[in-house]
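Troubleshooting: if your tokenizer reports a length mismatch, compare your output against this known-good record of 278 residues.
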Amino acid sequence: MSDGAPWPTRPPRLVATDLDNTLLGPDGEIAPRTQRALRAAAGAGILVVFVSARPLRRLRELSAHVAGHGVAICSNGAAVLDVGADVVVAEQGMAPDVVVRVVTLLRDAWGADQVHFAAEHAGGFDKEAGFTDSYVVPTGSRTADRIEEVLTDSTLKLLVRTSGPWDHTFPARVARVIGDEALVADSGAPGLGEISAAGVTKAVTLERWAADRGIGPDDVWACGDAPNDLPMLTWAGTSFAVANAFPEVLAAATHTCPSNADDGVAQVLEHAISLTTP
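Known-good structure output:
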């Protein structure tokens, strides 16, 4: 365990954890210790829910580990995936007219040749020709000159990058431009704005999912590293920031655990499991 406030002495009913830079190691994989802790938590009757900015397509990469834990909340809260069945059981996307308004505001602010868009939806991923992605574009994705040409009925997450100068303030600048039309999350991805429907956060979806099972915030431990985790961390009764978290996340969490390179979330789970033993 890391230094700081004493860790809880009452076990949680639910542990909600971010994935990238939190549960997953620096290599993007689930370490053996973490795999063992996830299995042991399930055996101890502790629910574990993955709550991630990842889109549906990138959660399926982890299906072998996620499926045993039922569901994953993804796209910053815009969708809930039953990973074992590979079925989207809930979604809160943006209608095409909302996406068009947001896109228009951003083009007007930066210039139509300076901002480029992509859209995550239940069926996959589509993008503008000028949008560069850090990951391999999945087979079947559509590319168009303008994102409006390939919109579906429900966009889970609109992604925006600029080909002009940018810095760490880019998501905040995007948020100021679009105002109340939609919500911008910052997952720490360089030069990327992640836009969801107004009011959609990890915390909102997690709270609803937990309430449906009779679980309130006092029985929830949450783990995260990035600004988009803050609503979830502040909602949960107990929160853990991994040691590699953003400064504002370290300041907001009730506890700090070791970094993702040191299996910090596994250590949180192991502590939770130890509290269930008489």
